[in-house]
Design brief:
alpha/beta; Rossmann fold; Helicase, Ruva Protein, domain 3; 4 domains; 5-stranded parallel sheet; transcription regulation
């Protein structure tokens, strides 16, 4: 059996240290001894000990236990997860109780019983490792959920098409039904998912947004279900997955139509059983989350072609919400345009007073292939370039010139242009890598490499 556990034993009696070392070295991964407690801080900064076996009395003729209590407090200051077991020749119940109040885990009397000592130390190692796993899980959970519970973004619109969406949201939000949101890119599928969450019984819990389109097959299982240390080359510590982090709240699986057959099978198993097994582990973990999915793909066509599992579709589409494209929402285009014009005028310190009739006509007659996302960027650009507060049709670049470069300006290289695009997108999305990757239509790993290449962050 593989030895586990790193121990520090501190006692002023060198014979005791020698005896303990001879006995315990066969049972633990690493053993460090010292007879001077003043060495404890330096030793703990150099090593991550699971357990410290600490003598209560060091000065000759002193048996109050005060020295042990002092060093117990110092150890606790250095490491909260290190388990401290006290060691003394003087059995005193009051001293034991006092030491427990200050964080000691157990109390061993001299002369000791080897079996009892070994069992106590092994329990201490398990407790310390559990604390470490919990600490890592909590840190990872905070990392995963750091930017998830954002302030709600309300949908804007009064068209019949969007009112139908409102009605469905109101009906489905109060249930636990799985929801599938369909619609073109940029129509606001994530906003609908967040609104369902915000109206649900889970509104005070996490909303976990997972961009499945940005996950490669090689990291899919680790990212969604977690992994244990050593399960693959770069697995240097245990990590919980997105499903564990979302437990109790809502998980939003965006771009679910992009999954390979293998990834679909793994996802289906979790959704059917609500049980996750981390990569490299045999331990089952129950997860409790509301499922909302979305895709811009023609999902029924994918099923007919055999590219998407029919049983998975039935699992995710208890209720289907179709997001209308912006071109079908009539006057909503102007309501949304004015919203963003005011927002960006405030952001950039500009004034906005209105749209001319020709400007309104131009916005209403444009097809908006990029939907709300394109409209939003168009309004931001107009505000940035504006020299006046009232906008005319010419202030909105919606033709082919929208994507061309003015060659009368100083030419830039392809790399310089790419750097500008990435920097602007990062700034727009406040560093949200998934959103930037989605906007630029590249994978997250590719985006990370380019950020590093151009030294953007």
């Amino acid at each position: 059996m593989k030895k586990k556990g790193k121990l520090l034993i501190t006692d002023d009696n060198k014979s005791v240290l020698k005896s303990l070392q001879l006995f315990l070295k066969h049972h633990f991964e690493e053993l460090v001894t010292c007879n001077n407690p003043n060495q404890i801080p330096d030793l703990m900064r150099q090593n991550e000990f699971d357990v410290v076996l600490l003598d209560m009395n060091f000065a000759a003729g002193v048996n109050t236990g005060n020295e042990g209590l002092y060093w117990l407090k110092q150890i606790r200051k250095i490491s909260k997860r290190t388990v401290v077991i006290l060691f003394t020749a003087y059995g005193d119940v009051n001293l034991a109780v006092e030491s427990m109040k200050h964080g000691a885990t157990d109390f061993i009397l001299k002369p000791w019983d080897n079996k009892k000592l070994l069992a106590t130390l092994k329990c201490g190692v398990e407790l310390s490792r559990t604390k470490l796993e919990l600490e890592h899980s909590n840190q990872h959970r905070k990392l995963l959920t750091a930017d998830l519970n954002q302030p709600a973004i309300k949908m804007i619109g009064e068209s019949k098409a969007i009112k139908n969406v409102y009605e469905l949201i109101n009906k489905v939000a109060i249930t636990e039904a799985n929801v599938l949101i369909l619609g073109e890119n940029g129509t606001g599928k994530e906003i609908v998912a967040r609104e369902i969450h915000n109206q649900s019984e889970r509104k005070d819990q996490v909303f976990m947004n997972v961009d499945l389109g940005a996950l490669s097959e090689s990291i899919f299982e680790s990212e969604l279900f977690g992994h244990v240390k050593g399960s693959f080359t770069d697995a240097k510590e245990d990590r919980i997955g997105r499903f564990q982090a979302a437990s109790g709240g809502t998980i939003f699986l965006d771009e679910i139509g992009n999954l390979s057959q293998a990834m679909q099978a793994k996802l289906l198993s979790v959704l059917q059983n609500r049980i996750v097994i981390s990569l490299g582990s045999n331990k089952e973990e129950n997860v409790d989350m509301r499922l909302i999915s979305a895709t811009n793909a023609e999902i029924l066509k994918l099923v007919q072609e055999g590219a998407f599992r029919e049983d998975l579709l039935y699992r995710i589409n208890t209720v289907v919400i179709n997001m209308p494209p912006l071109r079908e929402r009539g006057n909503d285009i102007l309501l949304i345009a004015v919203h963003y014009l005011k927002k960006y005028a405030d952001k950039y310190g500009k004034n906005y007073t209105g749209l001319s009739k020709t400007a309104k006509d131009k916005l209403l007659n444009y097809s908006w292939p990029g939907n709300i996302r394109e409209l939003k960027h168009c309004m931001e650009r107009a505000i940035i370039l504006a020299d006046k507060s009232s906008f005319e049709a010419a202030d909105f670049q919606l033709e082919e010139s929208d994507v061309t470069i003015d060659l009368s300006e100083k030419p830039i290289s392809l790399e310089e242009g790419e750097k500008i695009l990435i920097y602007s997108a990062l700034k727009r999305h406040k560093g949200n890598i998934s959103n930037v990757a989605r906007e630029l239509n590249i994978g997250r790993q590719t985006l990370y490499r380019k950020i590093e290449k151009y030294n953007i962050l």
